Description:
It is built from three helices and 20 strands. By secondary structure, the protein is α+β, with helices and mostly antiparallel strands. The protein folds into two domains: 36-231, Jelly Rolls, CATH 2.60.120; 235-289, no CATH class. The strands form two sheets. The protein has a 16-stranded mixed beta sheet that branches. A four-stranded mixed beta sheet has the order 18-17-20-19, with no helix packed on it. Strand 8 and strand 9 form a beta hairpin. It is globular and about 100 Å long.
Amino acid sequence: MKKQMKWIVPCVILVAAVLIIALIAIISTNREAGALTVTTTKGIVSVTRGSENAFLSEGQKIKPGDTVSTDASSCARIQVGQSILLLEPESEIKYERIKEGDETKTVFRLLSGSVLTDLKAENEYTVSVDPALDVAGSGFFGISLIQIGTVSTVRTTLVSGQLSAGDATLKESLKALPVHGAEDGSWTAGDVEDAVLMEFSDEAISYLRERIREGDKLPVTDTELLRVAADKNKSFQVTFYDHKNEVFVSTRVKNGERVQKPRLSPTFTGHWDFDFSTPITSDTDVFWAEDK
């Protein structure tokens, strides 16, 4: 009997230790549930988790509730299952996991800037601009949030596959669908336009080139993307003329980017006769118009 007791006690201790280790592993796994790996970063990428803010580097993970942001010279590539999400420069996105019945949906809420992604709707992945507008699809598509004053416009650009934005669907490659926001929270799809690859960031163009080299069939060639990358490095002169048609100020703007309105004005009453949301693709003259 004593011999049996001699072996029973160590066995009980061993079983208890195994159970404790298993319990710790389960708790640890649950804590990491939904964690995503940031596979590539360029420049300064930051993450906000609750009240804390920290820099992100390659190989680190983000968790549900985290907000990831980039500055003008940085970007981040996030691995989502077999898909990627490329957060472009000057952009911010919040990662959420939302429970709907027995299923959990992964949502990336675009707060500012642009993303390029191949997230697949059938895998319960979506990019949301606000609770009223979800963008989902398959293939490659880009989403940009353009804010002019109180007016929001979401430009969804389809590179390959198909996507849906609200009630609208895009199936033809290299097309863009602007979706306009209203003060009541509703969104209205505009007319489908030809996609402008110039509107993608250098990082997005580089990623599409990678995919072509890896064998993906995209409706654009590597040579075309090389030309787009070269064109993006061009710049043009934008000259502002005052009410006397004299040069007020001039600046150079990179091809496809938008010129900033001058901080000073020629007179107190008037406006620049120009749509500052227009991408600059050639030397441009802008004139001051006096209000009548």
